[in-house]
Design brief:
Layout (H helix, E strand, L loop, with lengths): L5 H7 L16 E8 L6 H7 L7 E7 L10 E7 L6 H15 L4 E5 L4 H4 L3 E4 L1 H5 L12 E2 L6 H14 L3 E6 L1 H16 L5 E6 L17 H22 L3 E6 L6 H10 L3 E2 L2 H6 L4 H17 L5 E6 L7 H16 L1 H4 L5 H11 L2 H9 L2 H7 L16 H18 L9 E6 L1 H4 L5 H19 L5 E6 L9 E6 L4 E6 L2 E6 L9 H15 L15 H4 L4 H6 L2
Parallel strand pairs: 3-4, 3-6, 3-7, 7-8, 8-13, 9-11, 9-12, 10-11
Antiparallel strand pairs: 1-2, 2-14, 4-5, 13-14, 15-16
Helix pairs in contact: 3-19, 8-9, 9-20, 11-17, 12-15, 14-15
Length: 552
C-alpha cells in the first residue's frame, strides 16, 4: 500500500456511528411496513410505467426477532455520477451489515460506474481491501461513471451478469438520475420475474435530491463546509487587502442549495439564489443593477471590495436566457445529426439564429461570443446545456464593469472596481468526509444492506432526524417511485426523480433574506475555518445550517 499521511491513518480508525435502532444484533432488527405511497406528481403516468413497484409502503426498522437475517446474500455495488464525500463509507456500511448477517455473504464492486455491470467488470471487496478506504474521500475504491441504464438490452445484460456472478442484489449509489435508472431497473426485473433486488442510495453534493423523507444527500455537508472554508479565506483576504471584488461561482447543477448554505455560513455582501431570480422574473440587467447598487453603496463608504456568490445553474433561471436555452435544447435535440456537420462557430451561430424565435435570437446575439460558444457546446447526457462550462461569474463582471464605467462618465460612481473570479467545485467533491457525512453515509449503506437482507427491491435507503445526534437518527426504506414525476428529456416526456429546489418559503432562505441587506453594506464576514474531525461535538458533529433551520 502507498505511503499515507498521519491524518489518513487516524481516519482509518474512526468508528462511524449508527442510529440506535441499527446498532444491535442484526437478528434483532425487524422491518415494519407502513401505508402505501404515491408518486409526487403525474400519478397516473408513473403508475402505468411502474406497474410492479409503484405504491409500495415505507419501511421502518424496529426491535424484534428476525429469522431471515442469516441467509447468504451476494451484493453488487455501483458508484454512479460525480464524486461526493462519504461514498466509501456507504460501501463500508453495506459491507459490515452484510458480514454481520452472514460472514459467507459477499460484496462485489462494479468498476467504473453502471457500465461495470453491463461490461461484467467486477472485483470482490474483502476485509483488507475495504479497510484501506474507510472514512476517506473520493470514489477511487471502484471508480464511477455516467453511463445511463435505460434500455432493455442493458437491463437484460444486468440480469445475465448477476446470474453469472450469483449476485442477488445491486446497490446504486447516485443522484436523482442514477436513482431514476435504479427505479427503472427494479421495475424491469420484477416484470421479468428476476429475483435480483435493486436499492438506491441518495448521493450528490448539490443537495437537490431531497424531500420530506430524504433530508439531504450525503456529501452536501462536507462539500459546503469545504467551500465555506475557502470563501471565508477569500473574505478575510478581501477585508485585508481592501481592493478586490471577488465573484465566486459555486457548484450545483440546477438548485442553489450550496450557494444558500455557504451564504449562511460566511455572510457575503451578495449571494444570488437562482430560484428567487426565477420567481421574481429578474432579467440579467436587473441582477446586474442589484449588484451595482451594493458596489456603489460600499464605495461610498470607502470599501471598494466585496464578495459575490453565484450559483452554477443561475443562467438557466434568468427568464430570457431560460427561454433561449429551452429553444436551443429542443432545436439541437431534433437536429443533432445536422448540427454536428457544422464545423465552425460562425456556421453554427448563423444556423441557430435562423431557427430561434425573434426574442430568443435577440438574447443569443446580445451575449458575448464566449458565452454563445459555451451555450453551443456538446450537450450533457440528458441533452441539456452544460451550465458548469458557462462562465457566469465572468459574464456578470463584464456587464457590471460596463455599467460602472457608464456611471463614472456621469460622476455617479467614484469608486474602484477591481475583480477576481473563482469557481469552487471539484475542490469539495472528494474531500475527507466530515464526521457527519462519515456517519450518515455509513448509516445509509447499513440501511441498504438491511433492505436487501429483508427482501426489498425498488427502494432507496433513507435516514431521517439528521439535526439530532446520530443515536436519534431514524432509518427507513422509501419506494423510489414516490419521488417521481414526468419531465421533458431529449424532446420526450420521461419518468424522473424530481429535483428539489431551494424553498423560498423555507426557514433557511427566510433567514438569509432577513440578513442580506445588512451583509450587503456592512462587512459582516464570518470565517468557518477547516472541517474539524477531533474535538467537541459542537464543532465536529454539527449538521449544516440548512438542516438545523429546517428542523427547528
Amino acid at each position: 500500500m502507498e505511503s499515507i499521511s498521519t491524518f489518513q491513518k487516524l481516519r482509518y480508525t474512526y468508528k462511524p456511528k449508527l442510529p440506535k435502532a441499527l446498532s444491535g444484533d442484526i437478528s434483532n432488527i425487524l422491518p415494519e411496513a407502513g401505508i402505501g405511497t404515491e408518486p409526487i406528481d403525474n400519478k397516473a403516468e408513473i403508475k402505468s410505467i411502474f406497474e410492479n413497484t409503484c405504491g409500495m409502503p415505507i419501511i421502518t426498522f424496529k426491535e424484534g426477532k428476525n429469522k431471515n437475517t442469516d441467509k447468504i446474500n451476494n451484493i453488487g455495488v455501483v458508484l454512479s455520477g460525480g464524486q461526493a464525500p462519504g461514498g466509501h463509507n456507504v460501501i463500508a456500511g453495506i459491507f459490515d451489515c452484510l458480514k454481520k448477517s452472514n460472514k459467507n455473504s459477499k460484496l462485489f464492486g462494479f468498476l467504473g460506474g453502471p457500465s461495470g455491470i453491463t461490461d461484467d467488470k467486477v472485483i470482490e471487496i474483502t476485509d483488507k481491501f475495504m479497510d484501506d478506504y474507510r472514512n476517506t474521500g473520493g470514489f477511487d475504491i471502484i471508480g464511477s461513471g455516467r453511463t445511463k441504464l435505460e434500455k432493455e438490452e442493458q437491463f437484460d445484460k444486468c440480469i445475465e451478469v448477476c446470474k453469472k456472478r450469483s449476485i442477488n442484489a445491486i446497490v446504486i449509489i447516485g443522484g436523482d438520475d442514477s436513482n431514476t435508472n435504479a427505479a427503472l431497473l427494479a421495475e424491469y426485473f420484477k416484470k421479468k420475474n428476476s429475483d435480483v433486488q435493486i436499492i438506491g442510495v441518495p448521493k450528490t453534493i448539490d443537495g437537490d435530491l431531497k424531500n420530506n423523507m430524504v433530508e439531504v444527500s450525503f456529501g452536501f455537508d462536507t462539500a459546503t463546509k469545504t467551500y465555506s472554508e475557502l470563501i471565508g479565506n477569500i473574505c478575510r483576504d478581501a477585508k485585508s487587502a481592501k481592493k478586490y471584488w471577488h465573484f465566486i461561482k459555486l457548484m450545483g447543477r440546477s438548485a442553489s442549495h450550496i450557494c444558500l448554505e455557504c451564504a449562511l455560513k460566511t455572510q457575503p455582501n451578495f449571494a444570488i439564489i437562482s430560484e428567487e431570480v426565477s420567481e421574481n422574473q429578474q432579467s440579467l440587467n436587473q441582477i446586474v443593477e442589484d449588484i451595482v447598487k451594493v458596489i456603489v453603496a460600499r464605495a461610498n463608504n470607502r470599501e471598494n471590495f466585496g464578495i459575490v456568490l453565484v450559483p452554477e445553474g443561475l443562467i438557466e433561471y434568468i427568464p430570457e436566457i431560460n427561454k433561449l436555452i429551452t429553444e436551443l435544447n429542443n432545436i439541437l435535440a431534433e437536429n443533432e445529426k445536422y448540427f454536428s456537420t457544422l464545423r465552425t462557430f460562425e456556421d453554427q451561430s448563423e444556423w441557430i439564429n435562423k431557427n430561434l424565435t425573434k426574442d430568443a435570437s435577440y438574447t443569443f446575439s446580445s451575449l458575448p461570443n464566449d458565452i454563445q460558444r459555451q451555450l453551443l457546446m456538446d450537450r450533457d447526457p440528458h441533452g441539456n446545456v452544460q451550465v458548469s462550462r458557462i462562465e457566469t461569474e465572468k459574464l456578470l463582471i463584464d456587464l457590471i464593469d460596463s455599467r460602472l464605467n457608464e456611471m463614472k462618465s456621469n460622476d455617479q460612481f467614484k469608486g474602484i472596481f477591481a475583480t477576481q473570479h473563482h469557481f469552487l467545485g471539484y475542490e469539495g467533491r472528494c474531500a475527507f468526509p466530515s464526521n457527519f457525512d462519515a456517519d450518515y453515509a455509513y448509516s445509509l449503506g447499513f440501511t441498504a444492506s438491511l433492505l436487501i437482507i429483508n427482501g426489498f427491491s425498488g427502494y432507496m435507503a433513507c435516514v431521517k432526524n439528521l439535526s439530532k445526534s446520530s443515536e436519534e437518527w431514524i432509518s427507513h426504506g422509501i419506494p423510489l417511485t414516490m419521488m417521481m414525476n414526468m419531465e421533458l428529456r431529449h424532446g420526450k416526456m420521461k419518468p424522473v426523480i424530481k429535483k428539489a429546489l431551494v424553498d423560498l418559503e423555507g426557514k433557511p432562505f427566510k433567514m438569509f433574506k432577513n440578513k442580506r441587506e445588512k451583509w450587503a453594506i456592512q462587512t459582516s464576514y464570518t470565517y468557518p475555518g477547516a472541517i474539524q474531525y477531533f474535538g467537541p461535538d459542537e464543532i465536529c458533529n454539527m449538521a449544516t445550517k440548512t438542516i438545523i433551520l429546517e428542523q427547528e
